[in-house]
Design goal:
There is one protein chain. This protein has one helix and nine strands, in the order E-E-E-E-E-E-E-E-E-H. With about 140 residues, it is mainly β. Strands 2-1-9 form a three-stranded antiparallel β-sheet. Strand 3 and strand 4 form a beta hairpin. The longest helix has 15 residues. The radius of gyration is 15 Å and the shape is globular. The termini are far apart. About 25% of the residues are buried.
Length: about 140
């Protein structure tokens, strides 16, 4: 099965469901703007996709956060300052605003598992296939280090 994220225009294939491990996140890039999205699958098989940028630290690290629950709702704890976000609506459960004064809410992305193989990109702007999106992000991190 292929995991797809809706970018506001169409469903983008980002990886195989087999690439995901329950409770562990991966960072994926959505073309054409290379938007970073943190993608998770929990132990029940539910998929979640949120912005990878932590609004409190400004770092793109949420894909390394910890999944959990609070009062029966799925949550994501940031690996930086440990703020916890509700995965059903994106809001921070610990603080209402980020340090810059903006609301402490993560953008949530529609995500699904589709019974199709990753599609061939339609144009050059969508030139990365699902595995290359993961590899591209990892390569950029290594270059910066």
């Amino acid at each position: 099965m292929t995991v797809e994220i809706h970018d506001g225009t169409r469903w983008q294939p980002v990886c195989s469901l087999d690439d995901l491990q329950p409770g562990r996140g991966v960072a994926v890039l959505l073309p054409p703007a290379d938007t970073q999205v943190a993608l998770f699958v929990d132990r029940s098989g539910a998929l979640y996709a949120v912005d990878n940028r932590d609004p409190f630290s400004g770092a793109h690290v949420l894909s390394r956060g910890l999944l959990g629950s609070r009062e029966g709702r799925p949550t994501l704890a940031s690996p930086m300052y440990k703020q916890t976000f509700d995965l059903t609506d994106g809001r921070c459960l610990d603080e209402d605003t980020a340090p810059d004064g903006t609301p402490a809410v993560l953008r949530r992305w529609p995500v699904r598992a589709a019974a199709t193989e990753p599609r061939t990109p339609r144009d050059s702007r969508d030139s990365r296939n699902s595995r290359n999106s993961l590899n591209s992000l990892n390569s950029r991190k290594e270059e910066r280090a």
